[in-house]
Amino acid sequence: MIDRISHSSxxxxxxxxxxxxxxxxxxxxxxxxxxxxxxxxxxLGLNDEPRFVDRLLARRLTQTETxxxxxxxxxxxxxxxxxxxSLDILEGQILPQLIRSRMEGNKRLRIWSAGCCTGEEPHTxxxxxxxxxxxxxxxxxxLIGTDINQRFLQMASxxxxxxxxxxxxxxxxxxRYFKPTRDGRFELSPDIRKMVTFSYLNLVDDCYPSLxxxxxxxxxxLCRNVLMYxxxxxxxxxxxxxxxxxxxxxxxxxxxxETSQILSSHLTPVSFPDATLxxxxxNKPPIAQSPGLVPDQEIRKSIGRLYELALSRExxxxxxxxxxxxxxxxxxxxxxxxxxxxxxxxxxSTIAFEQGRYPEAAEKLLSxxxxxxxxxxxxxxxxxxxxxxxxxxxxxxxxxRAIANDKLLPRYHYLLAIxxxxxxxxxxxxxxxxxxxxxxxxxxxxxxxxGNLTRRQRRFKESKRHYKNALSLLGSCRPEESPPEAxxxxxxxxxxxxxxxxxTEQDE
Length: 508
Description:
With 508 residues, this protein is α/β, with parallel strands linked by helices. The chain contains 22 helices and ten strands. The chain has three domains: 7-73, no CATH class; 84-279, 3-Layer(aba) Sandwich (Rossmann fold); 296-318 and 327-503, Tetratricopeptide repeat domain (Serine Threonine Protein Phosphatase 5, Tetratricopeptide repeat, Alpha Horseshoe), CATH 1.25.40. The chain has a seven-stranded mixed beta sheet with strand order 6-2-1-7-8-10-9. A three-stranded antiparallel beta sheet has the order 3-5-4. The two termini are 41 Å apart.
């Protein structure tokens, strides 16, 4: 049995939890922290350990240990239609405006519930969308829910709730979208459940925005009752990354108690009756953000000029390449060599991209590609830039033209497949992923992406097979190595990510 934890040890534990999970436990909440740790101890295998603190602090937490602690340290208190004031604004003003603006063009919406707990919040948004969009089946709606608590995600995927979760739900909604179960609970309609994709994501440690996690070019992010758990430093990092995930004009919703100067320094606060929401506005950029976007027509003209030049050139494939096995040739060997000046420009573009200065990165890359129109690294990065700007049509065009210029680079087909998924063209995306594996059967991220795609289609046996292929290939990677197109995620972290995803699935 664990002895009572001393004040000095509690300080060490509080600092440790802050550094590992980003969760803030000040002195006045140490009793809550101690209670949570005692509850977690049996699952950590430390229940009978007299030197519990020393053992826990001896090394960095494994993914399993992180999930165990997160389960006991985070509160799963949520319910449908929570914080009605902000939901009324969303339903009455923001969503209708977004829907009207997209009705004549690309009928696309991307919404993310970050820290979704047991799924009430994203399922609430799904219900709102069914009420607001009569022709919803004609729309490409991406609605994702992420959380660090594996048990919460499993409950969210099941879609079965008790009466307490429905305490803020109008009776007409309960009657229409829920079916009573024999044990007195309520099962959510399958039509609503299939609208939401749930996955594991650590807001403190994982990379976002990312094509890998589908967290790029988001219209609306709900991150309510989440930021208050983080330390100031981690909260600022999370807000900065969420800002990067939003398209220009996108919205961030937080709880009333979480409004802060940190939020206002990155996003524009917009006051409504009874609530304040935050909007991304390039007229008020964060520090080091370059103003303005590259206009759509200029992007298209630049892409056209770039590829007219590229396609007019002789193919740059050496005669001896015809004997090389393209499926195993490393991407780096297929990329063009660039000089020191161009390498410097590419590095500057990469830094601008990583800092969320996407318009600046686009301008630099277009300039670089005007001189080296078939440079693979720059083309791939520009595709990522357009995807994060929400310019999915331009990103698609870029990939298609790149493929027309060189059909043997798997990364072009992979990026095209990811973009096609975001555009809702799943059949074409599936074909592109299979093309990737035809060119390179060891392309880890293609296996992982196929797992994600088939999982969204609820083909769980198939998705598990793809995930296992990815895990098998990751077994030959160094833990600190980042596989191609993993966007900086290490092999070790990607393994943990895939295993966490598998654990949230249900058998058909």
